[in-house]
Amino acid sequence: MTSLYSSHSDDQPRIRDEFVPLDFDIKIPKYHIPEDQHDPAKIYRFVADELMLDGRARQNLATFCTTFEDKEVRDLMDLSIRKNMIDKDEYPYTAEVEMRCVQMLAELWHASRSHKTIGTSTTGSSEAAMLAGLAFKWSWRSRREKQGQSTDRPNLVTGPVQVCWHKFARYFDVELREIPMDPTRYTLPPEKLARFCDENTIGVVATLGLTFTGHYDPVQTISAVLDELESQTGWNIPIHVDAASGGFVAPFLNPEVKWDFRLPRVRSINASGHKYGLAPIGVGWVVWRESNDLPEDLIFRVNYLGGNMPTFALNFSRPGGQVVAQYYNLLRFGRKGYSSIMSDLQDIALFIAAKLGQMGIFKLIHRGDEGIPVVTWTLQDGIPLPFNLYDLTHELRTRGWQVPAYSLPKNLQNTVVSRVVVRYGFTMDMAAAFIEDVIRALDYFRRHAPAHPLDEKECHGFNHL
Ligand SMILES: *Cc1c(COP(=O)(O)O)cnc(C)c1O
């Protein structure tokens, strides 16, 4: 048996391949569907006991996703468990709530009232990115066809992007031109942009909240460079902003930063509701500036659900609860609540950065004040140390903390960094405890220097994307 997600390789014998519950009266196979029916409470016990062995989500400092929620969110998810997001005619109020969220986000991102903004919820930013990328590809192709030009070789120009854009490019057959990471700024270097663009560029993706470090790409400068390029060449290259994390941070922490629909070249924006949107895992958003930015060809209208609702999505069925929870959060926190949460998270990030800085061996790459509340650091050059950041990850895990260590992308692949994503539910007290555990780890390395420091493969670096 092999599975894409199998945690066992077939040449490794399994230690046990059945469950033996506490009361020992039944055995349940782990890898076969059991023959008999079983008592729900007992089965619940088995399943819950295995899940107990997972890491603690609130100590998972690798993820960007929500790991803390109001009880009311659980109640609303419960109310929604039977509702399919695609059944918009059967559940018109769930559909209405989705549309209200799209309106609220369009307004948060400064879409003009005179534009017919259009958007949808998705399963996350990855699906949102696929949809935005497809809209770019379709629009570019129809522009080129009208001019009688070839449509064989579309390309997408980006800075250091999240893996979803690599997926988009491969799955939908677009050349990805990822500008290598800038060693001083880490973000997309606008002065290099023009060299990567041509008449086949379907769009430029800027990231608000870089996965690798937390920085914001300089969207306003990128836009100005593309304005200049258009005046020289006539190429009107649109921008999509991947604001997976920053879409719910920048409007509250950095309202003066122009990255959104205030820039006419920004045609679409995505964000993960389940990151700093504070919704539970399973919801993203994509909004287009105007309905013209979403080619009509991509919209499907199906009549077999009893209505004739337009949809643009990769999935068909999808849970409604996350969208409802997003709506709840927007109402519950309001602009003031989001602002105060984001500014608390930034204070915590700055506290962690300051404390790490004082240890004298770490070089901070992002402190949490130039982008999202994320702290990223590397080891200072020229200080001989008996351990590396993979060892630190390993040691912190003994205290329950899950902190990723990974190498940066192209151009900086020799720089290994660690990163802490400060999220709602992570308190200043926890940050202080975390710092104490870093100090404890360094002290441990002083007394027990690792004979063979770990490498990337040996270290469970955690999924940092
Ligand atoms: C997390 C992330 C994604 C992928 O988002 P999902 O919601 O996990 O699908 C894409 N881009 C960036 C910048 C991200 O941080």
Automatic annotation (TrEMBL):
Signal sequence bounds: none
Key word Lyase present: yes
Keyword Amino-acid biosynthesis set for record: no
Gene Ontology cellular component list: cytosol
GO biological process, one term: L-glutamate catabolic process
Pfam families per UniProt: Pyridoxal_deC (PF00282)
GO molecular function: aromatic-L-amino-acid decarboxylase activity; glutamate decarboxylase activity; pyridoxal phosphate binding
Catalyzed reactions per annotation: L-glutamate + H(+) = 4-aminobutanoate + CO2
EC number: 4.1.1.15
Reported cofactor(s): pyridoxal 5'-phosphate
N6-(pyridoxal phosphate)lysine modifications at: K275
SUPFAM superfamilies found in the cross-reference section: PLP-dependent transferases (SSF53383)
UniProt keyword annotations, A-Z: Decarboxylase, Lyase, Pyridoxal phosphate
Family classification: Belongs to the group II decarboxylase family.
PANTHER family attached to this UniProt entry: GLUTAMATE DECARBOXYLASE
Protein name in the entry: Glutamate decarboxylase
Source organism of this protein record: Alicyclobacillus mengziensis
